[in-house]
Amino acid sequence: MQEKTVLVEQRSGYSVITLNRPQRLNAFSQTMQGELKRAIEAVEGDDECRALLLTGAGRAFCAGQDLSERLAADGEPMVLGDALEAFYNPFIRKLRALPFPVIAAVNGVAAGAGANVALACDIVIAARSASFVQAFVRIGLVPDCGGTWVLPRLIGPARARALALTGEALPAEKAEAWGLIWKTVDDDALIEEAHTICRQFAAAPAVALALIKRALDESWDNDLDAQLDLERETQREASLSADYAEGVRAFLEKRAPVFAHNRGG
Ligand code: T3D
Asked: Which atom of ligand 1 is nearest to the CA of 68?
């Protein structure tokens, strides 16, 4: 039997998805795209899930689209566009819309769509040996999976342009220094660090986490006035949650809060 190209593991309060085609640097084959789509839908529908950890098996995080599936039988490249609508665009939208934090543990090279899937996550931590490569231009393509949106917002137009236009690899430590990712850790500490973050989110106030994500996401399109209105609404909603009452009580009683682990409030 063929090994699964995506491994899903349930931990207490969070899930782990591992891209699992190490011999192809976890490049996205069509089979893997199908398995990943089902995995993310399962995680989305799991009321007990309060964080998602995404990582890769072997020496790479992900090398992007499996290019061996991009030549038609006559040896000509496929026309793209529909391919983005079939998998990548809905996948990125779903990943961004999950109501809990998504942590990418980038264990090695993240190239092409692999880099931009990682950058679509809420928190990106990377092994010191990892790198981020906007490899698209090397094969005559344009960054996708939201790369042209997220790069200038995270690192500014000058750096975004140079990375996208040259396809140069960006080492993890430089990615951290530029503010592209949250942090770099020693290679052998990466997975434990990612699990620690997930455990922290599994015990955190779930309603607040979802609202924080929403407020930060919507801020990209808002002026200050609109954002202040949004903060009023998100704060109102957060204050209706049992977790807020518990948080205040715990503070006043000088004890650690015990949150309800309930996304419904
Ligand atoms: O098509 C659409 O739907 C549109 C969407 C496009 C999204 C995209 O992601 S386009 C960009 C696709 N990705 C790339 O162009 C990156 C290709 N890979 C590389 O440039 C290099 O492999 C890396 C820089 C990522 C790593 O280099 P290195 O030297 O560490 O490893 P390697 O020797 O190149 O790769 C190891 C094996 O993985 C090798 O196979 P082999 O020789 O051992 O049999 C290599 O062919 C294979 N591999 C790596 N990347 C891919 C791949 N096989 C298929 N597709 C890949 N993307």
From this structure: 54
